[in-house]
Structures
1.
Amino acid sequence: MTTSTKSLPKSKITKRSFSATPITVAYGDGIGPEIMGATLKILNAAGAKLDIEEIEIGERVYLGGNSSGIRNEAWDSLRRTKVFLKAPITTPQGGGFKSLNVTTRKVLGLYANVRPCVSYHPYIHTKHPIMDVVIVRENEEDLYGGIEHQQTDEVVQCLKLISKPGTEKIVRYAFEYARAYGRKKVTCFTKDNIMKMTDGLFHKTFDRIGEEYPDLEKEHWIVDIGAAKLAETPEIFDVIVMPNLYGDILSDVAAQITGSVGLAGSANIGEGFAMFEAIHGSAPDIAGANKANPSGLLLAAIQMLVHIKQSDIAEKIHNAWLRTIEDGIHTEDIYNSGVSKEIVGTKEFAEAVITRLGMLPQKFKQVDYGDGNKDFNIRISEVKPALRELIGVDVFLQFKDRNPENLASLLSDVESYGMKLTMITNRGTKVWPNGFPETFCTDHWRCRFARDLQQGVNYQVVIDLLQKIHHRKLEIIKTENLYVIDGQQSFSAGQGQ
Ligand code: NAD
């Protein structure tokens, strides 16, 4: 046995054995300690070579006054090992506590969230007997920047940010993953019929990078119909890549329809770090009862073993786990009448997997992780400085009168070097000029000032304009510059414009 465990802070400086890979482990909250105990016992029995540093995160850390749920010495451990096997944690109810998962993913640059969602029919009950989908979710951007503001009495805003390098990394990751694991098709879900610039960038990047992978089939679905198809006919999908929010929601849907949320593991991969966890939470309702299914965390740990190039051990455990499921040794959450032979607890399930180490599944396809050499070629293209011409500004105002004509008459003679009012929208819909009286208006207005001639101005012109608006006693809540970039209008039109 080569797995050794060290707890921080006692073992802040650890003596490493040369053959073992250092990893950081957190036992988490609720069922966390039980499923982590079971998982490590199986890894140990299979001969995983791990040098473990244990950290405490989660509920006790939060309630001890640390609003991020993780202490500095835990970050130090993660910086040392760069590999994190994490059990679920409980986020205490009430305000002020930041999501530890989102923080860890963003701070450590874990840009790719990889969730294999597989059906184990007929052993585990599912409406979808043929399902083997890998969701690759972008993990750092989109609406998860957490940049939110109350802008007016009536309107709050959350910023959706999509970057060229961020998108290129995740799209390349999906293609590289598909190629490395012998997958045939990569599908992209976006909503670029509505969000033409943000989701449009994601879709265009998918098409552009996809050309470098002629061996793989490619397709794009608008996310709403794509989601419906995924829920109805998951067998038509293989690898799916998505921006953060859609990936968050749909990877839970995909995991759930395989049979149990307790079955799925996930990998969060970055350039220098990686975190592996079950997708489910800390299940306080069954904590301490020896009822939890450790499979989600075990399958995440198998992803970790492949990542740290111990794929022979990963393969051994995965095949033994499949055999256990085939033999009808099931935890309560996956009890399948007429198929399950024995309902066991967390500990007994782990023992059953250990007993089968070295055995292969008889009905399921046996797992083969090859030589484990799965280095992906993730690079980002240089983004050349563009020719940017400032041609106007969107000025956002709080204005209590719901009539756009009254706002327009207050602004109609405000001008700065030929930049004048061309449009007013309310929640994105054009209400002036020629708006519809039926359109409901809030107190949040966008007033677009632009020049007739598409000629650039400098920012001083915008400052002069803002001063004039300010002198009208109107409340400016934010501005957005309007650019023509490399000859292309680089802002959206108003709906109805
Ligand atoms: P949950 O996933 O913990 O539980 C949902 C249901 O699934 C419960 O009935 C539970 O008993 C069952 N379940 C979950 N995992 C199981 C397993 N391995 N075996 C058998 N049954 C299992 O979701 P929740 O109840 O909404 O959340 C509980 C806590 O977990 C909350 O504090 C939440 O913030 C936290 N959470 C943490 C993570 C994480 O750390 N990654 C993720 C999600 C939720």
Note: The pocket of nicotinamide-adenine-dinucleotide is lined by residues 31, 88-91, 101, 261-262, 277, 280-286, 292-293, 296, 333 (CB under 6 Å).
2.
Amino acid sequence: MPTDLHLASGSPATADADAVVIGLLPGSGSEGPRLAPGADEVDAAFDGGLAELLALAGATGKADEVVKLPTRGTLTAPMLVAVGMGKPDDAVSGPGAEQVRRSSGAAARVLAGTRHAVSTLSRLDLAAAAEGSLLGAYTFREYRTNGEGKTPVGRVDLLTDAADAEATLRTATALGAAVRTARDLVNTPPNDLFPESFAARARALAEDAGVEVEVLDDAALAAGGYGGVLGVGQGSARKPRLVRLRWSGGAAPRAKVALIGKGITFDTGGISIKPAANMDHMTSDMSGAAAVVATTVLAARLRLPVAVTATVPMAENMPSDTAYRPGDVLRMYGGKTVEVLNTDAEGRLILADAIVRAAEDSPDYLVETSTLTGAQQVALGMRTAGVMGSDEFRDRVAALARGTGEDAWAMPLPAHIRADLDSRIADIANVTGSRWGGMLVAATFLREFVPDGLPWAHIDIAGPAFHSGGPYGYTVKGATGVPVRTLFAVLSDIAENG
Ligand code: BES
Ligand code: MN
Ligand code: ZN
């Protein structure tokens, strides 16, 4: 059961709950920490000495620090949870949304096993507190039979006096649910999530939200000439699929947006096989697809006034006697030919088919996301997505991403790279002969399949989609659900501004 969120008013000091959550900010210089705004009644119950008391207990207010204090009757709730918020993004306006989101996530994690908490962080930013609580409380326990992994916090009351609180909570809850859906799909192991079963789950999610669904199976892909998806998928006994989802945008959609997500349900590398170390992470090679499915369903649930068509190619990249080979030439959807020089550069091949198909509907914008290159991790690290595409829209998408707390940075597509993809015999090769700028090379390949003049963005999430380290903020081990919040921000922005 996901955590239940409720709006609440009144004093946290007298709230009938198991725990009260407050924020703590680091002091400047040699000063001790200070309470974040929103904790006045709690501080008053401690005679105004709460910050000092927490400092005595070792609290400093740094991000991800959590100090639990038994209240012994000072508050109605028996436990106080003081969570560090780190340095304010902006000293004047106080803690920013991402600080609230992360500290709410950290609180939700330590509250695992607690039935009922009350949060004051929502007084700073209701939406951020709601999102952070839902995402920090996330666990994936489908495959545990030993009861390990604590029960998430049962209910969080979010204190607020915001005027539009109900609508804000409704949107934040739906967004949180979409991120959790994407995480569930990515965390599901590849023996259970393969193209056919992934397509079935996408269909079920879509139908439940009134989203139109079309699934092309391998026979339909062959009839349609989808050489990229078929080529990559032919080495696996689990046959490829192409899923199309459509949300109409209601009566008067503001614009038409094509979403595309890479759905490699497992990437061994194929005949150009990957080394064994960490190959299990390639269970997350369908993170882009998961995000696109979840976001399209979300757009429908919230009746966003944008027409969204998702095109999601799904395949398993396996080595076998039927696998495609280095040296093969694929005839892609739309007719271009591609010489495969490395079967591990498979994502761009299934995406090229999807891009050409999506562009046939003449969208106003095209956004594609994929765990496309290890080079993204080398260039930007594990938490910052690379955004490439047409200049203006690329910058807009990168800025919107940062606004959601999903970090992203715009990257260039230098013109000289294209020549490195020249093929000896086909229109283009799928890799160059060098390792430089691999993220930009992949995007340059994709650009060949995007119609001139169409605003497009490619979001490489190889690093940010999957988190292997310890938890921080609202990010837990495993699937992160990135970039659902970015895609939703882009759709919302287009709904508002065209
Ligand atoms: N799925 C991988 C990229 C990836 C690597 C995602 C690590 C997440 C973590 C992709 O299909 C791939 O294998 N890319 C190759 C491209 C190369 C052969 C040009 C890579 O990055 O090594
Ligand atoms: Mn690969
Ligand atoms: Zn891959």
Note: The mean pLDDT is 97.
